[in-house]
Specification:
This protein has helices spanning 5-16, 18-25, 32-64, 66-85, 101-111, 114-145, 147-176, 179-189, 192-204, 210-239, 244-262. By secondary structure, the chain is an all-alpha fold. The protein has one domain (5-257).
């Protein structure tokens, strides 16, 4: 088994940097930004679901067996659910915002005191850091052992990180009126992805072999399925209009299927 650490860290960093994209989207007005966000989250969910069931789990089955893969898969779901359970709804980066982003900023400014908003923004950034650590390690492992699979997962995780950037930048901007500061903290929160990769590598590197990789892959599949059905799809539905999120899901699955055949 060959491991390319540079590929792993690079793709993990790029996936984490997507929080900065979310921060930029938060400053766009109108519903077009919401539709794009809905389509993007649906696309990410489609990619994650397809690659989990068609690529990752079958590979894990070959390495550790079907029964053990099944157990590990649901353990991954449990881990993701536990992390999500520990995050208060108000700070959860994947809770949907039903109004337009800029309208929400204006409402927020009128509704809460600035110091409370600033505290909310900083706390959200901290929560996102904790939330993204296992995602960073999962992206790193996939990217460093299978480049084509890693690129796919990194893109899906990057799209899924966009709402996190929004969750950080909205309250900080509303409290300070400083777009640069809101953008900076949003971007910094994305560094949790490569941080998770680094910590995971330093701790688990001595134990990584083909069998251990099978366990990690089964866990990754469970985490991604939970993220898709519990976080991405509900949020995409709230942001979108009509069947925007479904179009994203189908497009994500189609592109993922074609890429697996080609590569």
């Amino acid at each position: 088994m060959q491991i390319n650490i540079i590929n792993g860290f690079l793709l993990t960093f790029l996936a984490g940097a997507a929080t900065a994209v979310g921060s930029a989207i938060a400053f766009l007005s109108g519903s077009r930004g919401n539709k794009l966000l809905s389509f993007g989250m649906g696309f990410s969910a489609g990619v994650m679901v397809y690659v989990s069931f068609v690529e990752i789990l079958p590979n894990a089955n070959k390495i550790i067996g079907e029964w053990f893969t099944l157990i590990i898969f649901f353990i991954g779901i449990g881990i993701a659910g536990l992390i999500d359970r520990l995050i208060p709804d108000a700070q959860n980066p994947h809770q949907a915002r039903k109004k337009s982003l800029i309208k929400e900023l204006k409402i927020t400014k009128l509704s809460y005191k600035k110091h409370k908003l600033l505290r909310t923004g900083f706390f959200t950034a901290l929560v996102i850091t904790i939330h993204n650590l296992p995602e960073g390690f999962a992206t790193f492992i996939a990217s460093s052992t299978n480049l084509s699979l890693g690129v796919t997962i990194a893109i899906a995780v990057a799209i899924h990180n966009i709402p996190e950037g929004i969750s950080v930048s909205v309250p900080i901007y509303a409290a300070t009126g400083d777009k640069k500061k809101a953008f900076l903290y949003s971007a910094l929160s994305g560094l949790a992805e490569p941080l998770g990769a680094l910590v995971g590598w330093l701790v688990l590197a001595p134990f990584i072999n083909e069998y251990f990789l099978g366990i990690i892959m089964g866990t990754i599949a469970g985490i991604m399925i939970y993220i898709s059905f519990d976080e991405l799809l509900p949020a995409a539905h709230e942001y979108g209009e009509g069947h925007t999120e479904i179009a994203g899901v189908i497009t994500g699955m189609a592109i993922m299927g074609v890429s697996l055949i080609i590569f």
